[in-house]
Amino acid sequence: MPKKGTRAQLLVSDDKKICKAIHQYSKGKISNENMDVLMEIGHGCMVTKNYIYQRYGGIKSLGKLYPGYTIEAEVKAAGFREKIGLPSVYFSAAMDRALGDIRIMWAQVKSGINEAASKNERFSPEDRHYIRFVVKISGCFENILNRKPVSVPNEIKPKYEVILKELGDESEQRAKTLNAYICRQTRKRLRKQHTDNETYFAIKMRGYRYGELDGEHGIFLATKVNRKRMFIPLTDTNVYDRTLDIKLNPKKKTIEIIVPLFVNIRQHDDYTNEIGISLGLWNMITTSTGYVYGSEFGKMQSEISEYILKEMRQNGKIKTSNTKKYIAYKAKMDAALKNYVNMEINKMLEKEKPKVVYMAKLPRNPGMAMKGTGDTYFLRMWKKGFVTERIKWKCQDNGIRVTEVIGKEISTDCSVCGQKGYIEGERFKCLACDFEENKKINAARNALNRGKTGKQLNRQYLQHKDEKIVKEHPEN
Questions:
Q1: Which residues touch 223 (CB under 8 Å, ≥6 apart)?
Q2: Which residue, 243, 307, 391, 463, is most buried by CB atoms nearer than 10 A?
Q3: What is the pLDDT of residues 275-314, one digit of tens each?
Q4: What are the pLDDT digits (tens) for 389-410?
Q5: Cα separation, 185 vs 112, whole angstroms
């Protein structure tokens, strides 16, 4: 557990460890002089990021992103750091973060292309196989986007030739058509990255040290003046040795330090169950075992919504005189809701003891509305998205696998016989087998059934879908 003065938040995870963000806070107010220095550094980091985004965010630089040494050499040769006068401990960290953002963007582009190809009914399984292959191979993908002949490493060239043969494409005309499709999909998804945030930046290890000054424990941060560091007292005495993120609050004259810390995933030998869950806008989670967690979820959301709408009805906007009061009270209500969500998810995991959680991936339906509640659909969907996010994070933290299943018609299928039923109020009824149950419990049991029978949002299911399309559309 973090010591007093820190706050832990889950960020990302892998199979063995999970990364938590430990938060440290400055003690008292920072002087105007020191805050100005930090803001100047933040501005320099913002400029650095935008320089990297602009110069290396396009298709011509795709081949330089991995591992990135070429970009570092080019930036160093250009003398950009010297031009803006930013210490290397900040400049290098800003460049790393910008390159990381670009890599994430490209990963999202590739994922979007594969997803679009999977949904395109005109494509055969061989077409999809080709697209997945060339998008995965970086050099191949880069050449396609830059209108160059496709070339693959010698060790996988035989596999590429087999894929072309499967296309029945001796003239490679089909491959050219698919390459053009990849280019169009890339243009749709590629975006120019930019940031205006100069209050958030990173610092490398050699740019700081923890220590004491005048009986206060804190951190010494590098400045733009050589061999001169500023001292920031902290509310805790923890010491870390990794790249840190610095978040400035110039209005309050405070800073927040975010420390990424990898810890082992918790192991629970007694977590052996498989459960399905159904999320709701009123009852937060209903499980396939028949239990409800978060029965106050809808009520708390409604109170927040009613408060927002009440303030907005005053002349169509929030009054300036009440802005601080409004922000403070809404933040208090949001914090209470988030604490409640976390508490109920923890309660569910402790009681259900799952090793696998199956949950539906439902499409958004903007036509859905909570009539008579003074609420808006999008506000509630934001809260529901927060619940989904917290479930996934807490399951990762406890070594529990979360599997999303196909959500289509999950509420109207019978969880006993599989036939189509109907919903009357809060009850689900099946005319085929006379089964009757709460509609959320029925949906949760359907999630469990679909998870166990392989109707999951994964590659295996998409492959079955491809085979079905070929049977239905042999002309493709």
A1: 37, 41, 87, 229, 230
A2: 391
A3: 999 998 889 999 999 999 999 998 988 888 888 777 766 6
A4: 899 989 988 989 999 898 888 9
A5: 8
- For the stretch 180-236, pLDDT in tens is 999 999 999 999 999 999 999 999 999 999 999 999 999 999 999 988 999 999 999
Cis peptide before 67 (omega within 30 of 0): yes
Q: Which residue has the tokens 């970009």?
A: 71
**What value, to the nearest 5°, has the Cα angle with vertex 431 and ends 427 and 432?**
130
Distance from C-alpha of 214 to C-alpha of 229, rounded to nearest angstrom: 15
Cα 9 to Cα 30: distance, rounded to the nearest angstrom: 25
Q: Indicate the helix (H) or strand (E) that contains 473.
A: none
d(CA 187, CA 197): 26
Q: Angle 109-113-119 (CA atoms, 0-180°, nearest 5)?
A: 145
Measuring CA to CA, which residue among 55, 457, 73, 44 is closest to residue 222?
A: 44
Q: Distance from CA of residue 272 to its chain's centroid? A: 27
**67 CB-side CA count, 13 A:** 1
* Maximum separation of any 2 CA atoms in the chain, in Å: 81
Nearest to 334 by CA among 300, 358, 365: 300
Q: What angle do CA 184, 50, 68 make, to 5 degrees?
A: 75
Nearest Cα neighbor of 381 from 367, 395, 402 is 367
With beta carbons less than 8 A apart as the criterion, state whether 94 and 48 touch: yes
Closest by CA to 239, choosing from 259, 264, 222, is 259
Enter the pTM of the model. 0.69
Please give the pLDDT value at position 382.
Answer: 53
With contact defined as beta carbons under 8 Å apart, do 430 and 419 qualify? yes
Tokens of 77: 């040769």
The arrangement of strands across the sheet holding 229-233 comes to: 208-213, 216-222, 229-233
